[in-house]
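stage 2 :: seqdesign
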C-alpha cells in the first residue's frame, strides 16, 4: 500500500490501461468495475494486486484500481477523477471513514455488524464483519492477496482477525501464498463458533467455516421486524439456516416455531442458538421444532400444516443474469406455495438476496402472487439494505424483503 499515484513519472511507471469509450462513461458515472472485455490496451502485462492506472482517450488520468489478471472483473476502482497519492495514510483514512459510518448505529445489545461493505465503502472485493471481539475479513478477489499483511494490520482491531476466502480464489491463495480459508491472522486460536449479540439475543457465528463470514448479518432489521409480528402466532421459518428468524420470533412471543432447512448442520446450530437464550422467558416458553427437508418439496408434500406467520428467505436463486427468469419463476412458486400454508389473517414475509432480481421485480412478483391467491391483503412493509450494508451501485443492491398481511 505504498504506491503513489500522481501526475507525471509515477503514472508513466505504473501499469497503464486504456478502456473502451463505453467503459470510460461507466467509470465516470461512478461504477467500481472494469471488465476484461473493456480493456483495449495496456503498457505491459499486469500482476494481480498491483495498482492499474486508467487513462481516457485524451491521455488524461481517469481512475486507479486494483488489477486482477485472472478475474473477469479486471480492475476494481479505488478512485476516479483526479489523481491522488495512494499510501498507508490514504488506506487508513478509508478504514476510518467506513467505521465512522457505523458509529452510533448499535447499542451494547448488538455486537455483530458489518464494518466494511466492499465496493460500497471504497474497499472493492473486501468485506469486514465484527462478531463481538472477533473480526472476519473476507476477500472476493485475489487482488488483495499480495497486500494481505498490510491490510490485516490495518483492519485487525483489538481482538481476533479471521481470514475467509471466496471459493473462486481459494486455490490461488493456497498455491501462490500458502493461505487457507479460515486462517486466523491475528489473535488467539479458535476451535469453534464465537458468540455475539443481536438486539439482545445471543447467536453463534461459525466464522471459520460458516456461510458468508459466519452469519447473515444483513437480515438483522428484518429479524427484529419479524419478532414484533410474532406474538401468539405459529411460525414457519423456511431456509432457516441457524435459526435467526426463528429465535427472533420466539423472543417476540411466538406460540411455536418450526425451523426448516435442508442442512442438519444448520439446524443443529439453530438448536444451539435456542439453548443459548433459554434465560429469556419467551424463548423458553416457545415450542421449537426443526425439520430437515428441501423447502420446495416439503411445501408440496405437507399440505395439511398451516401457520400464522411464514418467513421465506431462500439463498440466491440467480447467481448470474442468465438465471434470472428461472429465479423469478421459482420465487413465484415459492410464494404461492407459502400462501397455501398460511392461516387466515396470517402474515407472509418474503425475502430475496439475488442481485440479478431487482427490488421492483421482486416486490411486483410478490404482490402479483398474493393477488393470484384471491385473498385480501395489505402490504405492511417493504425493506432494503440496513445501514451497515450500504449499496451504492446496481450490482451491490441485492437484499429486499416484503411483508404481506392477509385480512379474512
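stage 2 :: out
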Amino acid at each position: 500500500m505504498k504506491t503513489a499515484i500522481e501526475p507525471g513519472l509515477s503514472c508513466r511507471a505504473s501499469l497503464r490501461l486504456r478502456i473502451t469509450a463505453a467503459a470510460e462513461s461507466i467509470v465516470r458515472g461512478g461504477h467500481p468495475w472494469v471488465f476484461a472485455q473493456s480493456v483495449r490496451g495496456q503498457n505491459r502485462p499486469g500482476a494481480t494486486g498491483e495498482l492499474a492506472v486508467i487513462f481516457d482517450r485524451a491521455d488524461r488520468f481517469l481512475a486507479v484500481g486494483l488489477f486482477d489478471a485472472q478475474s473477469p472483473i479486471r480492475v476494481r476502482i479505488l478512485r476516479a477523477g483526479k489523481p491522488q497519492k495512494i499510501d498507508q495514510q490514504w488506506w487508513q483514512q478509508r478504514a476510518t471513514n467506513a467505521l465512522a459510518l457505523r458509529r452510533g448505529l448499535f447499542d451494547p445489545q448488538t455486537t455483530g455488524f458489518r464494518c466494511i461493505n466492499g465496493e460500497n465503502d471504497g474497499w472493492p472485493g473486501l468485506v469486514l464483519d465484527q462478531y463481538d471481539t472477533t473480526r472476519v475479513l473476507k476477500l472476493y478477489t485475489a487482488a488483495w492477496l499480495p497486500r494481505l499483511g498490510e491490510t490485516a494490520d490495518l483492519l485487525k482491531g483489538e481482538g481476533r482477525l479471521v481470514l475467509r476466502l471466496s471459493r473462486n480464489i481459494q486455490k490461488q491463495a493456497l498455491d501462490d501464498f500458502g493461505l487457507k480459508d479460515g486462517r486466523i491472522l491475528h489473535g488467539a486460536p479458535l476451535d469453534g463458533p464465537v458468540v455475539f449479540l443481536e438486539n439482545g439475543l445471543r447467536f453463534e457465528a461459525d466464522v471459520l467455516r460458516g456461510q458468508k463470514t459466519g452469519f447473515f448479518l444483513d437480515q438483522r432489521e428484518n429479524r427484529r421486524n419479524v419478532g414484533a409480528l410474532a406474538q401468539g402466532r405459529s411460525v414457519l421459518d423456511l431456509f432457516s439456516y441457524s435459526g435467526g428468524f426463528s429465535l427472533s420470533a420466539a423472543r417476540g412471543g411466538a406460540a411455536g416455531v418450526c425451523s426448516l432447512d435442508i442442512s442438519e448442520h444448520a439446524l443443529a446450530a439453530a438448536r444451539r442458538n435456542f439453548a443459548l437464550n433459554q434465560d429469556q422467558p419467551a424463548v423458553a416458553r416457545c415450542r421449537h421444532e426443526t425439520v430437515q427437508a428441501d423447502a420446495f418439496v416439503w411445501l408440496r408434500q405437507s399440505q395439511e400444516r398451516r401457520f400464522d406467520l411464514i418467513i421465506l428467505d431462500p439463498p440466491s436463486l440467480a447467481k448470474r443474469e442468465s438465471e434470472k427468469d428461472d429465479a423469478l419463476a421459482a420465487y413465484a412458486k415459492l410464494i404461492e406455495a407459502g400462501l397455501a400454508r398460511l392461516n387466515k389473517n396470517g402474515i407472509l414475509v418474503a425475502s430475496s438476496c439475488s442481485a440479478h432480481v431487482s427490488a421492483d421485480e421482486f416486490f411486483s412478483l410478490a404482490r402479483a402472487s398474493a393477488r393470484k391467491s384471491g385473498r385480501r391483503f395489505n402490504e405492511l412493509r417493504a425493506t432494503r439494505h440496513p445501514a451497515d450494508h450500504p449499496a451504492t451501485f446496481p450490482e451491490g443492491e441485492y437484499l429486499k424483503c416484503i411483508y404481506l398481511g392477509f385480512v379474512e
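stage 3 :: structure notes
- Residues 1-12 have pLDDT under 50 and may be disordered.
- DSSP finds twelve helices and 20 strands in the chain.
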